[in-house]
Design brief:
The chain is α/β, with parallel strands linked by helices. Helices cover 39% and strands 12% of the residues. It has 14 helices and 13 strands. The strands form three sheets. Strands 3-4-7-8-9-10-12-13 form an eight-stranded parallel barrel, surrounded by four helices. A three-stranded antiparallel sheet has the order 5-6-11, with no helix packed on it. This is Dihydroorotate dehydrogenase (quinone), mitochondrial.
Amino acid sequence: MAGRAATSSAKWAREFLLRRNPLGAIRNSSSAAPGAASSTPKVPHFSKKGRILTGATIGLAIAGGAYVSTADEATFCGWLFSATKVVNPLFALLDAEFAHKLAVTAAARGWVPREKRPDPQILGLEVWGRKFSNPIGLAAGFDKNAEATEGLLGLGFGFVEVGSVTPVPQEGNPKPRIFRLREDGAIINRCGFNSEGIVVVAKRLGAQHGKRMLAETSGTSSSPGDEVKPGGKSGPGILGVNLGKNKTSEDAAADYVQGVHNLSQYADYLVINVSSPNTAGLRMLQGRKQLKDLVKKVQAARDEMQWGDDGPPPLLVKIAPDLSRGELEDIAAVALALHLDGLIISNTTVSRPDPVSNNPVATETGGLSGKPLFPLSTNMLREMYTLTRGKIPLIGCGGVSSGEDAYKKIRAGATLVQLYTGFAYGGPALIPKIKEELVSCLERDGFKSIQEAIGADHR
């Protein structure tokens, strides 16, 4: 094992130093044909900050190769995750969007730790007939174009959601469009569904799906008689696909239907995103009549396709945290009447709750995510659990940065939990930390499983 790790570290360092397309995530969309992957851009000259980040990362890789010879796999895995605490703060020295692209590239190329330690059984659960090894997921918006699903799932997330994916490629809103509020643990973004489009994403997901099928048929993934492990169509871990509409589209339903037809065969679940604040008119689709008509059309498109024994992927709707009680009641009524498979609560907020309101960056237009969103989104989660009488699985999203935060979401009614901004600030080391803290919370209150804790505040 030591030889393999050392060889891997040396190969990684050599590849990084030679700069073999280290920024493969960045696309030259202006010269690419619609619906096609664009050519690899020229590698930009690294700034002083970039060289510091590169040197620190290479040093960790080489040190890891040396360290592994004296440690077992679990110990070494823990060391790798802890080591990212050194590198992650260096990302703060970079432009926010560039740092994001660099992080996606690192995950896509396998330059991130891979979780080898099994999740504690207390964290496992089954939702929609799919087995999750743990309830902690990565929200949509990080891997918009499905470039790094394998690497992200390998970090130890129970599930990863890619997108939002639009039918036609679009650049999104003008830059700069991502703003850090570091002292508040928050981010404001107004990206506006920047997407490489359905065709490119479908090709990537299709390739990943084919790779897994090949591995299964060749017997490299499992052997006869092996216990069925948690996972989905993308391999270990569950993959969600978040669907969006194009900015200039006049028929929102047609955009979502197109997403279903092209991407649902690769998804363990689908999400209709009608709540981003950065696409004009999108949130109007959350109205009772509009949402009912939209969900009916998308469900029909999904159900008319041919499905195997597993059936079609579950369909969820992601809603905003800025809704009134009456609007929440309307959404709950639609969800129950149409047997919607789930709701994600919530997207980013256009409000600026304290203490963010005192931050000069708060004047920037866009959706606020991170710690300040936690109370608002969790209260809405609690209300929706009551309105749906606990009959619909809810995914709690907004301000999660610790195991205690995740536990509070679960007690409020969340079956699963997502994070994004917390991961952006905390890096890979945050994932095992959250899971460890969540186990402690469950055991502290006498729960033997995640399932027992869901909605505990309502009992």
